[in-house]
Amino acid sequence: MNNKFFAFINPYLKFIDNGDFFKKPFLWLYTFLALVNLIVPIYILYVAIDNKIFDGGAKYVFIFLTVWLIITFASWVSFQLWWDRRFKVVSISKIGDDFVVIPIFSHFLQTVGEWIGTWLGIVGFLSSLLVSLILGEEGSYFMQSLKLDFLSLNFVFIVLMPVISFLIIIVTRFLSEQFKAIAMIANNTKKN
User: Fold this and answer.
1) Is 44 in contact with 104 (CB distance < 8 Å)?
2) Integer Cα distance of 144 and 60 in angstroms
3) How far, in Å, CA of 72 to CA of 47, rounded?
4) pLDDT tens digits, the chain, 192 residues: what are they?
């Protein structure tokens, strides 16, 4: 059955079997998430202007600009993380591997954990510390006006934020490595 009528789908099946069918969308997703991280500071600036943050006192404008710089820095770090990892997700599995989706998903899980943990570690810790020290109780209203009210403004949160961020990174990395190990064992067992 090697005639063209029954074999015209072979290039498509090869595209799925070698993992390119899955790698390309994840490459695009990583690129999209990298670009979203560049847009986050612009969106927060828009929300702040819309909420007339610059009509407040000098103290609020100073706090906003400092928090915004922290968010911009975290977003730039996050952009670089996604931008760097997008090339690695494409080379995560090899031609001939039977299990190609597990390593790709595992890589995505690892990158999401690194992204969330890093972003929360930088923004959560520094913003909460800064706003708590300068604004005290008024800080809650300030963060709500920026749509960042999930960042609690008490000192327990300031201490826990780096710990929570580290735990997010390590748990997602642990899960990712478990998935990778299963796929590697399965792929290597087939070869032997």
Assistant:
1) no
2) 13
3) 14
4) 567 777 777 777 777 776 677 788 889 999 999 999 999 999 999 998 888 888 878 888 888 899 899 999 999 999 999 999 988 887 776 666 677 788 889 999 999 999 999 999 999 888 888 877 777 766 666 666 666 655 545 666 778 889 999 999 999 999 999 988 887 887 777 655
- In the block, tokens 């969106």 appear at 43
Dist. CA 81–CA 5, nearest whole Å: 46
- Nearest C-alpha neighbor of 110 from the set 88, 141, 143: 88
> CA nearest 165: which of 154, 151, 179, 153?
151
Contact 126, 148 (CB under 8 A): no
Q: Which residues contact 1 (CB under 8 A, 6 or more apart)?
A: 7
Contact criterion met (CB below 8 Å) for 176 and 113: yes
Residue keyed to tokens 């899955």: 22
Residue 126 corresponds to which tokens in the numbers above? 């520094």
Report the distance separating Cα 56 and Cα 86, nearest Å.
Answer: 41
Structural Rg of the chain based on CA atoms: 22
